[in-house]
Amino acid sequence: MDSKEFRKRGTEMVEYICQYLETLEDRRVTPSVEPGYLRSLIPGEAPMNAEPWEKIMEDVETKIMPGVTHWQHPRFHAYFPSGNSFPSILGDMLGDAIGCIGFSWAASPACTELETIVLDWLGKAIGLPDDFLALKEGSKGGGVIQTSASECILVTMLAARAQAIKTLKLRHPFVEEGHLLSKLMAYCSKEAHSCVEKAAMISFVKLRILEPDSNCSLRGETLMKAMEEDELQGLIPFFVSTTLGTTGSCSFDALDEIGRSLQKFPNVWLHVDAAYAGNAFICPELKPLLKVIQFAFKMALKIFSNDVMKIFQGIEYADSFNTNPNKWLLTSFDCSTLWVRDRIRLTSALVVDPLYLKHGYSDAAIDYRHWGVPLSRRFRSLKLWFVLRNYGISGLQEYIRHHIRLAKKFEKLVLKDKRFEVCNDVKLGLVCFRLRGSDKLNEKLLSIINASGKLHMVPASVNERYTIRFCAVAQNATDEDIEYAWDAITDFAAELLEKEQDDDFVEITEDPRKKHTLAQKRSFFVRMVSDPKIYNPAINKAGTPRLSMEVTSPTGDGTTVTVQSPPHESTWISWPLAFLFNSTDDSKNDVTLRFRHLDVKMGSSRRNSATGGGSSPSPENNNKIMAKNYEEFRKHGKQMVDYICDYVKTMEERPVAPTIDPGYLVPLLADEMPKKSESYNDVMDDFEKKIMPGVLHWNHPNFFAYFGAGNAYPSVLGDMLSSGIAAIGFSWASCPALTELEAIMLDWYAKALDLPEFFLSKGSNSESVGGGAIQASASDAIFSCMCAARARAIKKLKGDNYDTHDSVYLPQLVCYASTEAHSSVEKAAKMNLVKLRVIEPDSHDSMRGDALERAIERDIARGLTPFFVVATLGTTSQVAFDNLVEIGHVCKKYPSLWFHVDGAYGGNAFIVPEMRKLKAGMEFVDSFEVNPNKLLMTAFDCTCMWVKNILDFTAAFAVDPLYLQHQHETSVVDLRHFGTPLSRRFRSLKLYFMFRMYGLEGLQSHVRRVISMGKHFEKLVKADDRFEVRNDVFLGLVCFRLLNSDAVNQEFLARMNASAKIHLTPAKVKGKYVIRFVANQENCNEAQIESAWKTIQTFATELLAELAPPKRIRASRPTLRKLDRTHSQRFSFTRNVSQEIYERQPSIQKLMDGATPIVVIDTDYILQSLQKATQRNKEAAQEHESTEIKSKTPRNPMANGSA
Question: Which UniProt keyword terms apply here (predicted)?
Fold first, then answer.
């Protein structure tokens, strides 16, 4: 698709989105489809040839849309709002079109700096203390945009864990981290979101779940009592997660009480999860909820003024805070914002810093790759920037107040009807209500309502009673929508009560065949917690009384599960039970289990699934929310399409890379977000003049760095549609089409790559137990697979030893990867707290089976347990391919090994039949991942991951509260079980558009073009005797260098990049500094390659002339000394392990050859080490270059070391 066609199709997509949203009321709120509906409507394989746009959009409307849950529908009152607004869609369109990947400041300065500034804007608007703002003088804190609230909570828990282990290590220096881990205890309320429990599972720490008070609020006294009891048992409290706006009832934990109580425990990390409610704090009258002392809110309003700085006694105690603008600030998913008080404490737990990602401004700029699991990240801040500027604080406040007013209206309607009761304190947009009667009666009522398709709501358990959640969700919802909803509810209630009177035993279901008992629904993945006695022998010996009574519940396979129904003051400890999630015929797993009693029950309707949470008070007013202006979006959407086309068309006229310093954007933008709405033209004018100068243009014809980033027009269109629909797909029930299209697209792609059939989903291969998911990045995929392998390995090691703490086995585990493997493998090992042994590759930088087997045998002899092997197809530095056949045969000898293949770049090449010889051995593999956003032009984030056995994989992530369950969960696998996040975007749409608009032949043609461009450049390099090629050119990447010293080549690269005429990155290949050249652009041709080569030759000629002995060169130009920081170091990314800065502590077994037990280094030590290492590297480079130049050019005046 060229710019001319995109201009037409983009305009049509804008019109489609407008029509979709304008006519939303004409559609059912929820689809009436069964699992597998889409499989019969879509072909089993990707088309070979490109298909017409009209046919694709016809299929979208007639096949995909019937399976979409319409989260923007005015009758949708489930979960919490899914952010969606026209400014957000425009921002996402622009981010996709630019296509930069912002893993570091150097990778795209504007991407990093805008995120920092916008997070400070939002933090100020919410009213966070200055300590959480990055740009406040003296602050150590800052904000970051994560993929989900789940990731926010995970990374803060990992940071707290690292801090706790560091402290324990000082007292017990010779004890392995895994043993120390068994002492750590985290805390949350029973009402906390399930992602806290999942984070504890992944982090391998205990989690004590505490009873809230009658208002569903966790109190300081309850927490203190639990922590003091645990200390007496020898446990160490290290992390507390509080909630402002809980999922079930929008209740608020007593943050002020908890914060003051934790002063007795100064080493405990206090996190505040305000995913929904945090957005409301932009309203001055709602800010007292950041304090949350337990007294009536009206009293709070009288006591507290609107002066923000006087009311933060609660939030002042927090170490971190997160909220989701993609819930309640009109910003499309994914956009979860996290702030921390001390960013070094966060990043020190996540830093894996290979030198090929380092740059001269590492100590002066934020690199967001250190703030989370993924290395790479989208330009997410653009959509938030568009929203904040287009609405302004006043517009967003209006929107929040409007929803609160609607909720208050609904509450009044409920209270007027004596048949109903309100079950929560309605502070924000959520009302929990029920019919006066039994839980069964309310379950039936919700089932009937949802089955009708007129409304959609979900249930919750409030004070042990089944309630129905009604949330104001739609941006344009009106009083009439609330009245319509209430009329429908009361009509269904009247019918139900009449039938109940006729027959007390009538069971109303959507379909008589779908009768599932609660026990049956619990029989597969169930949210569980363990009893303290099971996993802590100390508690068992101490005879701690169990205060709860137990009842048994039969499961679907005939076994009996014990369910705990605890009294008000009881607590539970959650511990990773992945080893228990085996197939239902596993006779070994007979340990008594206890369900966490957040028993939000599901009705018989498929749509009776729930999630979400939030809360806050609501002033009554008649403000009208700024409605969606469709005509304005039509106008500006078309303008954005034109801007994107013009940007792509004229990109060559821009410098490929910016020439700016860190902090360039701060003085150009306002200190705070605007009070009032600003026009689209003003926003775009600022974007072009202020943000664009800081963008590194990854799709520029002279950009040959990294591996490129996809931004093909069909992909942009798919993401546009995803943003317009704004559906969230955590389960099949939350959006059937999202779940099913993802499975089908992965099957299409697996077949196109000729992957083994065991990777296909059950829909394509009835005998398969495999399948996959689209992850945010390759880092996420590798981390998730390692988590799954760890869970499986510990289950096998543990056997029947149920009294042994899981973490005791962690020090035994060791994984393996080549020295050429991506740094994300080391990061995954660090987060999983396992050893990583790096294997030296052969002369072609390929990992071989014999080297792996020798390392495994040595480790087994030392008493270690090998559990995970990562092979790479297309390494970062030179696109080397590990030998899968040899490695696979080795892994087969050790059945406990999980064999993962990272094909992030190289794996895409298998779409071309002649490249498939490089994937020989794939039949041995347990999991595989590939990035279409690298070689197949698809916009980031789109990492396709397949696993051989889904149950082995999801066991590590299955934290399944009943409010997320649905009746079809035994026949479909919900995507929330495939990694850290609960929620996910409709990512498969862009793959769907890519496959259909290019066809396999079009994608194959692109891959072949990339390969031929690489070969053409290789030929040009070899024809010039001043250069050499250092790698085997398989797949478009050429590693070349001047036949000179490393120092000269480093200077050579620095000069080229500093010119902004071309952009390249370096690597180390066979011990030599090389320059990487790869051409992934869609329309790259030989003329562009030859032009780039001429530019390279020109710089080479100039540099070599300066080094030539006959001439004495005294330049009228700036001296080379000026390149020391701004140029040479800035572009000096070399692949190596930064052991000089981030030291690794040897384990007891003295694994010095690559094993990396984790040690957390002191904040000051890191900063000092960075400074010292930078200075040492600088001095060494100058001395080395001086020696080199003196030896070759004794008469050259530049030989005094100034180079």
Answer: Decarboxylase, Lyase, Pyridoxal phosphate
Whole-angstrom distance, CA of residue 364 vs CA of residue 381: 20
What is the 3 state secondary structure string of 887-934? HHHHHHHCCCCEEEEECCCHHHHHHCHHHHHHHCCHHHCCEEEECHHH
Average pLDDT over residues 156-161: 98
Query: Which strand (E) or helix (H) includes residue 1042?
Result: strand 1037-1042
List pLDDT tens digits, range 282-334. 999 998 877 654 443 444 444 333 433 333 458 999 999 999 999 999 999 99
Sheet bearing 142-146, strands edge to edge: 142-146, 336-340, 320-323, 269-273, 236-243, 184-189, 206-210, 572-574
Residue 612's contacts (CB-CB under 8 Å, 6 or more residues apart) are 78, 79, 80, 247, 276, 458, 469, 471
Residues of the chain above pLDDT 90, percent: 69
Residue 710 three-state SS: strand
With a cut of 50, say whether residue 1146 has pLDDT above it: no
User: Which amino acid is residue 223, in one-letter code?
Assistant: L
Q: What does the block give as tokens for 288?
A: 């007292």
**Which pairing describes strands 458-462 and 465-471: parallel, antiparallel, or unpaired?**
antiparallel
1196 CA to centre of own chain: 53
How many angstroms separate the CA atoms of 517 and 20, rounded? 38
Q: Looking at residue 611, what DSSP letter applies? A: -
Residue 1049, SS3 per DSSP:
helix
Arithmetic mean of pLDDT, 631-643: 96
The C-alpha atoms of residue 694 and residue 1115 are separated, in whole angstroms, by 30
Which H/E stretch holds residue 321?
strand 320-323
**How many whole angstroms separate alpha carbon 410 and alpha carbon 730?**
28
Tell me the C-alpha distance between 1188 and 1191, whole Å.
5
Distance CA 1166, CA 592 (A): 46
The DSSP 8-state label assigned to residue 687 in this structure reads I
CA-to-CA distance for 319 and 164, rounded, in angstroms? 14
Q: What are residue 323's phi and psi, to 5 degrees?
A: -145, 160
Fold designation for 736-997: Aspartate Aminotransferase; domain 2 (3.40.640)
The pLDDT of residue 1181: 60
- 112 with 121: CB under 8 angstroms? no
Element (H or E) spanning 1183, and its range? Answer: helix 1163-1192
Nearest to 715 by CA among 1058, 992, 354: 992
The runs of H, that is alpha helices, within 142-294 are 149-171, 177-181, 194-203, 220-232, 255-261
Radius of gyration of the CA atoms of the chain, in A:
29
Question: Which CATH number is 1012-1200 given?
Answer: 3.90.1150.10
- Owner of token pair 């130009």: 1117
- Distance between first and last Cα of the chain: 47
For residues 431 and 410, is the Cβ–Cβ distance under 8 A?
yes
Tokens of 999: 């066809």
Cβ partners under 8 Å of residue 804, min gap 6:
798
Global pTM reads: 0.84
DSSP string computed for 622-679? --------HHHHHHHHHHHHHHHHHHHHHGGGS-SS----TTTTGGGS-SS--SS---
Question: What's at 644, amino acid-wise?
Answer: I
Res 1063 pLDDT > 70: yes
Q: Which are the contacts of 1012, defined by CB distance < 8 A and separation ≥ 6?
A: none
Helix pair angle (713-725, 3-22), 10° resolution:
10
- Distance between CA atoms of 95 and 105, rounded to whole angstroms? 16
Strands 430-435 and 420-422: antiparallel
Q: Strand, coil or helix: what is 39?
A: coil
Of 632, 969, 728, give the one whose Cα is nearest residue 76.
728
The domains of the chain are located at 518-595, 736-997, 1012-1200
Q: How far is 47 from 39, CA to CA, in rounded Å?
A: 15
Q: What is the mean pLDDT of residues 641-646?
A: 97
Helix, strand, coil abundance in the chain, percent, nearest 5: 45, 10, 40
